[in-house]
Amino acid sequence: MSSVSIIIPTLNEASSLEQTLRQLTVLNPKAKEIVIVDGGSSDNTIELAKHCLHFFPLNVDVQIIKCDIKGRAVQMNFGARNASGDILCFLHADTQVSHDIVTVIEQTLTNSKISCGGFISLMTGTQTTRWGISLHNYLKTYYAPLIFRPYSFFKGLRLLFGDQVMFCRRQDFLKCGGFNEALPIMEDGDLCLKLFKLGQIRLVNRVVTTSDRRVARWGAIKATAIYLYVGILWGVGVDANYLKKFYEDIR
User: Fold this and answer.
1) Which residues form the Glycosyltransferase 2-like domain (predicted)?
2) 114 assigned to some structural domain
3) pLDDT digit string (tens) for 46-87?
């Protein structure tokens, strides 16, 4: 049986969640469990999640739990505490994965030198694929640690972000303290830095797709500028609470 628990933080994700959940119903092999952690949605996210339950095989446990405090880091930590799998996979509600992702995750972590992994994220919309921004995000996995932590880069540090579907061993996640709940953004990069103390960070040569809704709202030029600005300032140590004001929530 699979040892992978997939944790999905949600907040007003009714427009994206059903497609993501339907993709999870065809995983082969199946995940051990799906844990949906809602931070207080005011739309019909919860109702939609409950509606999707009957699509899942009977041998897949799907939990829908409510977190009293909203915030991606808080919700993912809460989901991790309620999960039972030996491997934790953190999936955004607007990201779709391949049918064999469980196998890829488990095979990646058979290497004891690897503490955390993620995938190449391809940003797509209803009528377009954001090739340029997707390429930049791919390269950022490498150039960000190379610029800001070159010694660690050559030791195996890569900088992953949430839409890359990060995964790690449960014991390593707990050992490093999980996500920093004080961070409103960049909690994923911070987790990479903490997990790197326990092993290499690996970018798996497989693709997941994620919504381009932020780029569609901002425009490609503005989005790229914000990504660069936030990334550079975070890399030199600027407080993530200050950076959050440049990174509005978009649903």
Assistant:
1) 5-173
2) yes
3) 999 999 988 888 778 999 999 999 999 999 999 999 999 999
DSSP 3-42: -EEEEEEESS-TTTHHHHHHHHTT-SSPPSEEEEEES--S
Closest CA to 226 of 251, 208, 244, 250: 244
Q: Each residue of 169-202: b (16+ CB within 10 Å) or e?
A: bbebbeebebbebebbbbbbbbbbbbbbebbbbb
DSSP string, 155-167: TT-----GGG--E
Is residue 251 in some structural domain? no
Q: Which residue range(s) make up the domain with 54?
A: 4-246
For the chain, the domain total comes to 1
d(CA 128, CA 153): 33
Residue whose C-alpha is closest to residue 82's, from 105, 61, 63, 69: 63
pTM metric for this prediction: 0.93
First to last CA, the chain: 35
